[in-house]
């Protein structure tokens, strides 16, 4: 496999569920690999493997750029395209995940991702200690609030770069996706006076967005809206070569994973003068907070300061990118490479 850089990849059929359980450990150079557990539908289980490989590598970069003593990993349970899990089957799936994690002898720990919740982490935690973001009553806490706070910090840096101020009053942003992170972020932005365009595939979210004074549009319209910053906050792959010519924003920065449909889209955005801040940098608040509190036992205040420091990280990346005439993504990749090389 030319270019294969992962340290360890486990693909096994769950002993209880019979479903494919995939764990990709990309790197442990900086410390224990960490990454979410994704339970999602795929046309082919190998698509789930591709997700695990790509997202675990992104997690290594996220940890390195954030200055964390951790590497990157990812769990994917590949469900059939038409699958619906009842409670009993879901529990079996989660115990299968726990057994696969245990087989890695502590080199990897998991948390929530698409298709899983803190409650699911408590179930995984019944069979392995290598889990984080469990509910508070189980000694953990969700990551969504910290991810939203970290995204806000990143947007402050972008706003200052564009307009010389970190304040959001008078700024116009499009938040694409109103899930647990996107809705929290929209509330934070609205509270600071931002003018919002919002979208979600679930029309039921429209009522809640009305309380923010936001303009509701379709996800396609939000992506190409005439705004200062587009904030992708749902599933990835939305930034394609076809959509780049239609974009009317000055910058893109959001917490959604895997925003680029292909790596060369970053260059297309750069040539159009649109600053794209890599999603693994913008979305790092959740993992920074969780690892600081649950794995490194820091106080809530210490963890919050680490999350808010994302503003400085993004400011430095944008400055470096401009100075070296490269994309912010290239600047982030080089920073991660240097930190991994010095480990």
UniProtKB/TrEMBL annotation:
NAD(+) binds at residues 177-182. Keywords: NAD, Nucleotide-binding, Oxidoreductase. The active site is at residue 74. Residues 140-343 form the Glutamate/phenylalanine/leucine/valine/L-tryptophan dehydrogenase C-terminal domain. The keyword Oxidoreductase applies. GO terms for biological process: amino acid metabolic process. This is Glu/Leu/Phe/Val dehydrogenase. It comes from Nonomuraea deserti. The lineage of its organism: Bacteria, Bacillati, Actinomycetota, Actinomycetes, Streptosporangiales.
């Amino acid at each position: 496999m030319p270019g294969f850089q992962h340290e360890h990849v486990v693909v096994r059929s769950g002993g209880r569920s019979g479903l494919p359980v995939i764990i990709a450990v990309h790197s442990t150079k900086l410390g224990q690999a960490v990454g979410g557990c994704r339970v999602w539908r795929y046309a082919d289980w190998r698509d789930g493997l591709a997700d695990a490989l790509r997202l675990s590598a992104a997690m290594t970069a996220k940890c390195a750029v954030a200055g964390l003593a951790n590497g990157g990993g990812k769990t994917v349970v590949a469900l059939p395209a038409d699958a619906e899990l009842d409670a009993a089957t879901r529990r079996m799936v989660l115990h299968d995940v726990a057994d696969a994690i245990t087989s890695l002898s502590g080199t990897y720990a998991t948390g929530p991702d698409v298709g899983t919740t803190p409650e699911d982490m408590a179930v995984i935690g019944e069979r392995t200690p290598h889990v984080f973001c469990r509910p508070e009553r189980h000694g953990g806490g969700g990551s969504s609030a910290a991810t939203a706070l970290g995204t806000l910090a990143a947007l402050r840096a972008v706003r200052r770069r564009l307009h010389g101020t970190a304040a959001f009053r008078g700024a116009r942003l499009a938040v694409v996706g109103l899930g647990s992170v996107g809705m929290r972020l929209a509330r934070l932005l609205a509270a600071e006076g931002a003018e919002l365009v919002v979208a979600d595939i679930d029309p039921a979210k429209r009522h809640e967005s009305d309380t923010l004074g936001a303009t509701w549009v379709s996800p396609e319209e939000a992506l190409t809206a005439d705004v200062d910053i587009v904030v992708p906050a749902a599933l990835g792959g939305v930034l394609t070569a076809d959509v780049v010519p239609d974009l009317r924003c000055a910058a893109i920065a959001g917490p959604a994973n895997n925003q680029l449909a292909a790596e060369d889209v970053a260059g297309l955005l750069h040539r159009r003068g649109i600053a794209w801040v890599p999603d693994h940098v913008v979305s790092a608040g959740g993992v920074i907070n969780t690892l600081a509190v649950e794995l490194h036992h820091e106080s809530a205040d210490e963890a919050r300061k680490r999350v808010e420091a994302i503003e400085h990280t993004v400011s430095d990346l944008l400055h470096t990118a401009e100075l070296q005439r490269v994309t912010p993504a290239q600047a982030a990749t080089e920073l991660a490479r240097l930190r991994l090389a010095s480990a």
